Amino acid sequence: MKINKNHNKKRRIVIALSTVGFLVLVSVAAAIAVAQMANNDAQPNTPSDTAIPESKINLDAPTQEQLDAAQQKKEDSLTNDQVNQQPTSSLGVTITASNQNNTSSLLQIRTLIDAITRSGTCSLTLQQGAVIVSRSADIQAGPSNSTCKGFDIPLAELSAGTWSLTVEATSGNATGKATSQVVINAN
Questions:
Q1: Are 117 and 141 in contact (CB under 8 A)?
Q2: Over the stretch 134-145, which tens digit does the pLDDT of each residue have?
Q3: Best exposed site among 30, 58, 68, 133 by fewest CB in 10 Å?
């Protein structure tokens, strides 16, 4: 029976030492993790060489020299934009629709211009024999091209039959033309 008691004491000592060792390892790991988190919080998100101390930021109203420089920069930007937006000598014009709308009694004509053009005009000419119907519309710029703002011709102005259709777009020194035919049906 004595042997069993010694064996139980040794077992208790081994379990106690194992538990203490495990607790020491967990405590050291926790201390390291806390130290790393504290270190990460202390570092700024931006590189320190680009950070400007608050004491060096000038919050005073701008001087006249700074205002003049900003105005000049703005004017240069606008001038460069106008130079970069100069139209070519030729515009691609496409007639995308020429539809007779009997509900609204209109001939609706729509176009597409293959350049971004901020200003200009479109001229529409419909001709059947000696009869000519003309309209004009402004050019409207879109994100990747332009359009004529559209033509809506009352059907009462057009007789039944085939009409020649010409749309000419002009912007600055650039022009483009598209032709087609449209058949007007009798109402």
A1: yes
A2: 999 999 998 899
A3: 58
Continuous segment of H or E residues that includes residue 32? helix 2-42
**Dihedral angle computed from the Cα positions of residues 81, 82, 88 and 91, in that order, rounded to the nearest 10 degrees:** 90
pLDDT of 29 > 90? The answer is no
Given a cut of 90, whether residue 163 has pLDDT beyond it is yes
- Integer angstrom CA distances of residue 148 from 27, 133, 145: 76, 17, 11
Look up residue 77 and give its DSSP letter: H
Of the pLDDT bands very low, low, confident and very high (cuts 50, 70, 90), residue 125 is: very high
Which parts of 43-128 fold into alpha helices (H)? Answer: 64-84
Residues 59-82 as b/e (b if ≥16 CB within 10 A, e otherwise) read: eeeeeeeeeeeeeeeeeeeeeeee
The pair of three-digit structure tokens given for residue 79, joined into one six-digit string = 């001038």
> For residue 140, what pLDDT is reported?
93
- Across 22-26, 63-67, 132-136, the highest mean pLDDT is recorded for 132-136
Local structure of residue 90 (DSSP, 8 states): B
Residue 180 and residue 127 in contact, taking contact as beta carbons nearer than 8 Å: no
Q: Is the dihedral of CA 99, 101, 156, 183 positive or negative?
A: positive
The alpha carbon of 128 is separated from its chain's Cα centroid by a whole number of angstroms, namely 44
